């Protein structure tokens, strides 16, 4: 779960976590061009990252997925339970719509960026810099889940009254949204959701929800008429839909 705090104008302290010294140097050079970003430390694995978080207290972290020992995904999950903080995944495995990206967002990562490819480093670091400045404004809380499964609400005697349920979820809210939706019964009221997430991730996210929830989950389309038992996700981007 995430809310916002004002960091306008102050220096944003960044911790870079990547097992490649060359990549760490490249990331540092790419993001420190911005006057408000300062790299306060680097780590090559989860153990080093854990100690750096304790001693350096960075505002935001970039985190690789593939690392020796503990993977970035596993470290992210532990970090969010022990000391939640803004994290941007930066990996060759976090391309648009990948399983690793959706899993990381579900665990509390603020966003995901694919590592720069040859000839596209400038654009990647421009995007990453913007994300770091935004992520520094996110106050990330420990996951709401307690490890106890959420049971779907009982439906005996329930009748749909013709109204829809609307849910808005911001950056960092994926985990909280999943926790809420796990309690929805198979014949839940028609539900419309806007989730602040890059459009290219939404289809994978919808597929993940559809596989794990009792109601049907899909991306909304223009002219849709949602019925009980359906959860529709706004497609993202600049789309404007008319729901019947």
Describe this protein's structure:
The chain has 244 residues and is an alpha/beta fold. The protein folds into two domains: 2-140, Rossmann fold (3-Layer(aba) Sandwich); 146-244, Methylesterase CheB, C-terminal domain (Rossmann fold). The chain contains seven helices and eleven strands. The chain has helices at residues 21-31, 46-56, 72-82, 99-107, 121-135, 174-181, 199-212; strands spanning 2-4, 12-17, 37-43, 60-63, 87-91, 111-114, 138-140, 165-169, 191-195, 216-219, 230-233. The strands form three sheets. It has a five-stranded parallel β-sheet with strand order 3-2-4-5-6, sandwiched between helices. It has a four-stranded parallel β-sheet with strand order 8-9-11-10. Strands 1-7 form a two-stranded antiparallel ribbon. Helix 1 (21-31) links the parallel strand 2 and strand 3 (37-43). It starts with a strand and ends in an 11-residue tail after the last strand. 35% of the residues are buried. Mean pLDDT is 84; it is low at 1-6 and 146-150.
